């Protein structure tokens, strides 16, 4: 069965909010809510691939304690800036 565009966005949003660690839920969930609907197919594919990574690696990459792989570094930078802005603005 082929996944519809709507089902894909719903799945990705759910996976962003239900990571396994609350910290990554709070980083990826709001990002997904704010950006998924406007992302290109290429960006969605990249974010979908990111969602397959484990939380420990994602947390280390977003916190700067480890260097992310080149394929994900630009997207992670955008996500990190978004999360940092939300944190500092109290949103």
- What is the 3D shape? globular
| CATH topology label | DNA polymerase, domain 1
| Total strand segments | 0
Number of helices: 5
**CATH architecture descriptor text:** Orthogonal Bundle
What is the number of independent domains? 1
Oligomer: single chain
Distance between the termini: 39 Å
| CATH homologous superfamily classification | Flavinator of succinate dehydrogenase
Mean pLDDT: 94
- The level of helicity is 55-70%
Structural category is mainly alpha
- Would you list the SSEs in sequence order as H and E? HHHHH
Radius of gyration: 13 Å
Strand content is under 5%
**What does the largest sheet look like?**
none
Helix and strand arrangement:
Blueprint: H1 5-17, H2 22-35, H3 41-50, H4 55-63, H5 73-89
